[in-house]
Write a structure and sequence with these properties.
The chain is built from 15 helices and two strands. It is mainly alpha-helical. It has a single domain, classed as Ammonium transporter AmtB like domains (Ammonium transporter fold, Orthogonal Bundle). The chain has a two-stranded antiparallel sheet with strand order 1-2. Strand 1 and strand 2 form a beta hairpin. The longest helix is centred in the last third of the chain and has 33 residues.
């Protein structure tokens, strides 16, 4: 009898030990976290194709619809390869290696240090790498809206390749990869500086350097198909949940709050822009409400992990009003042909959202309180100063480097199509195809 009891105790101890071992394994790879980030990765890719592709394609003239779709599709393919070859290692380096303040180490060229068993937190590193790849895809694709209808396809490919390596990947490292902006306490949950400010500043520089489209300001250039623009806008809204909530890198409270504030900001941005147009022109427009939605999404992106629902309402309303005013000022007062309003929507929104983190992340604002200040920062003024440094550094670096890259590309292949091709439309001139054959 005693022998049987000893055997039973031994078996129980073995079961407990095996359970503990399994628990340790589960802690290293969390199934729920992995499943959510897999889903979020698909959602962010969905933002570019078909979301952004259709959103942009409907806004251009009928003779250029295929050129925009082609640019977004080609960038999805090309940026994936560039990220795999060198972009990821510049941004994040390799595991277990101390990273410098400006770029990552080069131990992950061709994903060379990523194995089947590599882990980043509770998800596989391979999943983290492709999740970040989708960010590297959509950021250059956003820039397409600034030079739509007039840039050579070859120039766009060369520019985007160099830009991803020289601008996007280093800034990504500064903020998310262990670089100097992250070290000083910058809060940018999902890409106010890394995605929206870099893309928008590059867009503004490109628009200024290339000059306006032929007839800009004198010839009407209305969107050719707002129906597909609205469809694309809806896809962007849904995909943005992966963009923001996925940046929590887990199925947790942070992801849930990020999704909630993202939705509220988008809704309020859309309503604010619609009302601004309604008051000014007497009628609300479909183009206005979807553009306001994008402004609300872009503005909440950096703050989505730092603020609560009430603050998200304020951020969304501010985005709709301020981005609307910025769009009209850039187009009508400054006469800058940022074809699809990349800078006033994404740039102004990204700057606004990044700065407002410095206010609404405070835990002392009652209903409008957020999740607290960065480590080592204990006041609104201190956090706001760090946020302003992040905005200024990203803006200046992106602007200078984009100018240099565009000059280089212009010398190699030429930036702009000739006047005859622009008049004919890029669909036929560059791709020998038509968007519609009715």
């Amino acid at each position: 009898m005693l022998k049987a009891i000893k055997i039973a105790k031994t078996l129980i101890l073995l079961v407990v030990a095996m359970s503990a071992a399994n628990g340790a394994s589960a802690d290293s790879l969390d199934g729920a976290d992995t499943a959510w980030v897999l889903t979020a990765t698909a959602l962010v890719l969905f933002m570019t194709i078909p979301g952004l592709s259709l959103f942009y394609a409907g806004l251009v003239r009928v003779k250029n619809v295929l050129s925009v779709l082609m640019q977004c599709f080609a960038l999805t393919c090309l940026m994936s390869v560039v990220w795999f070859v060198v972009g990821y290692t510049i941004a994040f380096g390799s595991e277990g290696v101390e990273q410098g303040p400006y770029i990552g180490d080069f131990g992950n060229i061709f994903f060379g240090a990523i194995t089947m068993d590599s882990m980043t937190g509770t998800i596989p590193t391979s999943l983290f790498a492709i999740f970040q790849m989708t960010f590297a895809i959509i950021t250059p694709a956003l820039i397409v809206g600034a030079f739509a209808e007039r840039m050579r396809f070859s120039a766009m490919l060369v520019f985007s390749t160099i830009w991803l390596v020289v601008v996007y990947s280093p800034v990504c490292h500064w903020v998310w990869g262990g670089g100097w902006l992250g070290d000083i306490g910058l809060q940018d949950f999902a890409g106010g500086t890394v995605v929206h400010i870099t893309a928008a500043v590059a867009a503004l520089v490109a628009a200024l350097m290339m000059g306006p489209r032929k007839g800009f300001g004198t010839v009407a250039m209305p969107p050719h198909n707002l129906t597909i623009t609205v469809a694309g806008a809806g896809m962007l809204w849904v995909g943005w949940f992966g963009f923001n909530a996925g940046s929590a890198l887990g199925a947790n409270n942070t992801a849930a709050m990020a999704m909630l504030v993202t939705h509220l900001s988008a809704a309020c941005g859309a309503l604010a822009w619609m009302i601004m147009e309604w008051v000014r022109h007497g009628k609300p427009s479909v183009l206005g409400i979807v553009t306001g939605m994008v402004a609300g999404l872009g503005t909440i992106t950096p703050a989505s992990g730092s603020v609560g629902p009430a603050a998200a309402i304020v951020i969304g309303l501010s985005a709709g009003v301020i981005c609307y005013l910025a769009t009209n000022f850039l187009r009508n007062a400054l006469k800058v042909d940022d074809s699809l309003d990349v800078f006033p929507v994404h740039g102004v929104g990204g700057i606004l959202g990044t700065l407002l983190i410095g206010v609404f992340c405070s835990e002392q604002l009652g209903l409008f309180s957020g999740n607290g200040f960065s480590e080592g920062i204990s006041s609104i003024g201190g956090q706001l100063r760090v946020q302003a440094i992040g905005v200024a550094a990203t803006f200046l670096y992106t602007g200078v480097m984009t100018f240099i890259i565009l000059k280089l590309v212009d010398a190699i292949v030429g930036l702009r199509v000739d006047e005859e091709d622009e008049n004919q439309g890029l669909d036929l001139a560059l791709h020998d195809e038509r968007g519609y054959d009715l």
